[in-house]
């Protein structure tokens, strides 16, 4: 940025909310000399700093890229609407936090896409950065625009805006992309040569090199590579052993959401809950050894000064050394006044033993359980089996141990659901409240969190339709009335955001036009739910002449080619179909650490499986 | 652990982009930096233990300073120069630790003894110093100088203790203010600029000194 622009930005900062979001300068920020590196990345989280800076994936990639002396990686985030207005009014392009360089000066822009409602922000950022929005419009002098993250397991709805996607885990592939880019830049070849070179890297998907044909009924006829060397399917990338954990986290200077450091103790989950996208796409299970985790926590605390640590995994209780871990965490850190959180505990008394270890380190707080469904029948359908007796025993013990507040997560809109299943949610809440009142007294706090099922790609529920708004509203109203009467707090996803998320997550390439129209009509920050965006989206669908119900309210045929079928998560479609049928029969599947159900992971990645040491996968 | 905590008083500067970090965030920044030093920090007693730390005065967003003060307490004595160096290493580059002095526990709090603050304001090049001077003199010649803050009208006239005009080495016009900062009345220099129709964002506002009622080192 030129000096006068820099002055202008500083002046603007006086007039926007929370200007500390835009200035960088945090402890552990890495600023490199642009002249000493060959490849310059800007890692972008397309939501505001307050939401994005805490993202562990982004922190990992930032440290991995910057560890290479030939690479620099800086950061950028979506400006909030007030800052966006100032940037546009003053014709200042979006810039990076470290060196304040405009985004178009970078070689590669890497967008983190953890959820779908962030897509319009990507378009807004490209526009604010004066970078052509469509991959087809970009030339050799524009940055390469890459996306990665949990939403990218169905990249089709945003395929036109990205040059390439990383499917799966980024730790290794990001350096391979960087190397391929450097070779291409030195050889001064065409942009098409670069895109072709990227397809040779495992886990990289270049959407422009595939053509999609549709059947007369609107379903997909075929997805075909347009060039002979491009693979028909792109298999996700994994790291066979979790690489060493980063510790030099940036320490934000302004308060952000989840203002603590996170340490990943395990990746993947073997439980096989049928609604769970993360459980399907992040296989196989890989865990970190306690003897690695403890020094990582200490190093990170020393490097950051944080007083709160989140131990992250999809299912903490399933880490094979979890009790040892919580005991060692207590022994090593109770003098350091650190608070720990351990999310995603299973509903069993063992979880209480774990929390007992940590409780002294984090006084107060509540306990959270996620039964997801309130009848044993429905829990069999979603494959999250749990005896009612076990549930109430655990709840009883939680109160006996002195916890005063309990949050329970449930889902509605599940397949085969009847009003009886919904009534059971309220009954469960009331019964839990009664147990709490008996053991704790009137001050006990019960909170029900109600989510609506969005059948996600790559899960056994992917063929299902989203339940229509009328019955969803009826169920929500029933629960709202009942909880209000009982004095139970309830929160829920508003049906509008559920619908939008279903379109964006389950869509095909035709959604690109819709997203573009929606952005042009002012949609952004769709994840915030505060802005009345759904009408904009409905208008965008009609401008693009596409029926949104096709994506949300249509039960898909088991033989249909799904928009994401050419993205291979290592779990095969046959397995998902079988599991879907079992679901309808109410047939459960035990934890696959006990019996292999041949989901496909070992067929796909078995050769990379470490033969010894702690890096073992959960697979038998 | 020593039963009696040892009080240290630190003077620091805050410049550059850190002027956009507000008061509460600055406090958290110091807490984390102190933890990074691994000094034997004193924590508050009670349910939620926090580092014992007191900042003298909130520096408004956008201001730089060469005169901020804070007190913190350790369980055991550590050399002042060692603390200074450790904090300097642990803090972001745009904060400099200027002094660390062991301080008597019996002294009143910084916040409670703050009386006035001094500021130096560099006006933008397009503002003629002479004209500004005249406008300010006119303003202060009136019987009352009303400033509305949070729906309350405050008379700034008794709060402006001293002012003076200078030129800096690059021939920019500089205004010096000494303003009351006591619980009885707390004046901000940017409010005065706005009364004169100048956008504070166009100026560089630096706090140069904090004055306390007790004798300071």
Fill in the keyword field for this structure.
heterodimer, A: 620 residues, alpha/beta, Rossmann fold, pyruvate-formate lyase- activating enzyme, six-stranded mixed beta sheet, four-stranded parallel beta sheet, 19 strands, 36% helix, globular, B: 217 residues, alpha+beta, Alpha-Beta Plaits, nine-stranded mixed beta sheet, two-stranded antiparallel sheet
List the helices and strands and how they pair.
The complex is a heterodimer of chains A (620) and B (217).
Chain A: H1 3-13, E1 39-45, H2 49-52, H3 56-66, E2 71-77, H4 81-89, E3 108-112, H5 119-128, E4 144-148, E5 164-166, H6 173-187, H7 191-199, E6 204-205, E7 210-214, E8 220-225, E9 234-235, E10 261-264, E11 266-267, H8 277-281, E12 286-287, H9 290-304, E13 308-312, H10 322-333, E14 339-341, H11 349-359, E15 367-372, H12 376-381, H13 388-400, E16 405-412, H14 419-439, E17 445-452, H15 469-486, E18 489-492, H16 495-506, H17 511-520, H18 534-543, H19 549-552, E19 567-568, H20 573-584, H21 601-605
Helix pairs in contact in A: 5-17, 6-7, 9-10, 10-11, 13-14, 14-15, 17-18
Chain B: E1 6-14, H1 23-37, E2 53-55, E3 64-74, H2 80-90, E4 95-103, H3 110-113, E5 114-122, H4 129-141, E6 146-149, E7 152-155, E8 160-167, E9 173-182, E10 185-186, H5 189-195, E11 204-212
Parallel strand pairs in B: 3-11
Antiparallel strand pairs in B: 1-3, 1-4, 2-3, 5-9, 5-11, 6-7, 8-9, 9-10
Helix pairs in contact in B: 1-2
User: Which percent range describes the beta-strand content of chain A?
Assistant: 5-15%
Uncertain segments of chain A are none
Distance between the termini of chain A: 55 Å
Q: How many structural domains are formed by the residues of chain A? A: 2
SS elements, strand count of chain B = 11
Q: What is the number of helical segments of chain B per DSSP (H or I, 4+ residues)?
A: 5
- CATH names the topology of the largest domain in chain A as pyruvate-formate lyase- activating enzyme
Roughly what percent helix of chain A?
25-40%
What gyration radius of chain A follows from the Cα positions, in whole Å? 24 Å
Total discrete domains of chain B: 2
- Put simply, the count of helices of chain A is 21
Report Rg of chain B.
Answer: 19 Å
Structural class of chain A: alpha/beta
Specify the oligomeric state.
heterodimer
Which homologous superfamily in CATH is the superfamily of the largest domain in chain A? tm_1862 like domain
What CATH calls the topology of the largest domain in chain B is: Alpha-Beta Plaits
- The beta-strand count of chain A equals 19
**What is the typical, i.e. mean, pLDDT of chain A?**
94
């Amino acid at each position: 940025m030129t000096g006068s622009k820099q002055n202008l930005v500083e002046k603007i900062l006086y007039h926007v909310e929370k200007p500390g979001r835009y200035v960088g300068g945090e402890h552990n920020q890495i600023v490199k000399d642009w002249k000493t590196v060959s490849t310059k990345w800007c890692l972008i989280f397309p939501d505001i700093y307050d939401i994005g800076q805490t993202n562990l994936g982004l922190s990992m990639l930032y440290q991995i890229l910057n560890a290479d002396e030939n690479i620099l990686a800086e950061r950028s985030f979506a400006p909030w609407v007030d800052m966006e207005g100032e940037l546009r009014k003053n014709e200042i392009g979006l810039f990076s936090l470290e060196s304040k360089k405009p985004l178009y000066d970078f070689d590669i822009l890497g967008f983190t896409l953890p959820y779908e409602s962030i897509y319009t922000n990507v378009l807004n950022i490209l526009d604010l950065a004066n970078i052509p929005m469509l991959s087809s419009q970009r030339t050799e002098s524009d940055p390469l625009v890459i996306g990665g993250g949990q939403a990218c397991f169905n990249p089709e709805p945003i395929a036109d805006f990205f040059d390439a996607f990383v499917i799966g885990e980024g730790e290794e592939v990001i350096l391979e992309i960087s190397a391929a880019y450097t070779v291409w830049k030195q050889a001064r070849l065409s942009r098409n040569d670069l895109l072709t070179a990227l397809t040779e890297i495992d886990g990289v998907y270049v959407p422009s090199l595939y053509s999609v044909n549709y059947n007369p009924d609107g379903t997909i006829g075929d997805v075909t590579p347009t060039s002979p060397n491009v693979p028909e399917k792109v298999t996700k990338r994994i790291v066979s052993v979790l690489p060493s954990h980063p510790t030099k986290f940036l320490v934000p200077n302004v308060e952000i959401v989840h203002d603590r450091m996170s340490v990943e103790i395990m990746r993947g989950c073997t439980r096989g809950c049928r609604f769970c996208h993360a459980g399907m796409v992040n296989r196989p299970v890989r865990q970190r050894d306690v003897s690695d985790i403890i020094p990582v926590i200490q190093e990170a605390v020393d490097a950051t000064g944080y007083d709160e640590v989140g131990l992250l995994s999809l299912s903490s209780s399933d880490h094979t050394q979890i009790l040892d871990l919580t005991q060692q965490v207590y022994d090593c850190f109770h003098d350091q006044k650190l608070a720990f959180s351990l999310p995603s505990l299973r509903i069993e008394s063992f979880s209480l033993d774990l929390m007992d270890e940590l409780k002294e380190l984090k006084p107060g707080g509540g306990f959270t359980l996620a039964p997801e469904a309130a009848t044993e029948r429905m829990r069999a359908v979603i494959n999250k089996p749990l005896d009612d007796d076990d549930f109430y025993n655990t709840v009883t013990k939680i109160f006996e141990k002195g916890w005063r507040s309990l949050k329970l997560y449930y889902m509605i809109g599940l397949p085969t659901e009847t009003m009886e299943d919904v009534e059971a949610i309220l009954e469960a809440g009331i019964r839990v409240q009664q147990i709490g009142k008996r053991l704790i007294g009137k001050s006990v706090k019960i909170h029900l969190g109600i989510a609506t099922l969005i059948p996600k790609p790559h899960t056994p529920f992917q063929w299902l339709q989203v339940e229509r708004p009328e019955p969803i509203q009826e169920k929500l109203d029933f629960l709202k009335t009942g909880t209000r009467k009982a004095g139970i707090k309830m929160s829920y996803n508003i049906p509008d955001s559920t619908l939008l998320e279903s379109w964006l997550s389950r869509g095909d390439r035709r959604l690109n036009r819709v997203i573009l129209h929606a952005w042009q009509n002012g949609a952004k920050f769709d994840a915030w739910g505060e802005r009345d965006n759904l009408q904009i989206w409905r208008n965008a669908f009609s401008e693009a002449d596409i029926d949104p119900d096709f994506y949300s309210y249509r039960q898909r045929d088991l033989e249909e080619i799904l928009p994401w079928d050419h993205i291979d998560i290592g779990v095969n479609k046959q397995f998902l179909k079988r599991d879907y049928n079992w679901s309808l029969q109410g047939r459960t599947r035990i934890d696959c650490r006990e019996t292999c159900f041949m989901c496909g992971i070992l067929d796909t990645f078995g050769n990379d499986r470490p033969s010894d040491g702690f890096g073992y996968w959960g697979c038998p | 652990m020593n039963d009696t905590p040892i009080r240290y008083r630190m003077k620091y500067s805050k410049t550059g982009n850190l002027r956009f970090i507000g008061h509460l965030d600055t406090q958290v920044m110091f807490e984390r930096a102190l933890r990074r030093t691994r000094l034997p920090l004193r924590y508050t007693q009670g349910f939620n233990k926090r580092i014992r730390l007191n900042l003298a005065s909130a520096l408004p967003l956008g201001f730089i300073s060469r005169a901020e003060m804070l007190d913190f307490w350790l369980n055991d004595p550590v050399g002042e120069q060692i603390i200074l160096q450790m904090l300097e290493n642990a803090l972001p580059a745009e904060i400099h630790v200027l002094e660390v002095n062991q301080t008597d526990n019996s002294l009143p709090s910084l916040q409670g003894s703050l009386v006035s603050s001094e500021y130096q304001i560099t006006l933008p090049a397009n503002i003629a110093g002479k004209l500004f001077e005249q406008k300010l003199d006119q303003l202060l010649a009136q019987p009352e100088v009303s400033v509305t803050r949070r729906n309350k009208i405050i008379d700034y006239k008794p709060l402006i203790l001293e002012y003076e005009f200078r030129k800096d080495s690059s021939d920019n016009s500089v205004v010096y203010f000494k303003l009351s900062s006591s619980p009885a009345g707390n004046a901000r220099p940017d409010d005065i600029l706005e009364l004169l129709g100048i956008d504070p964002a166009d100026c560089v506002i630096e706090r140069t000194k904090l004055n306390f009622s007790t004798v300071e080192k």
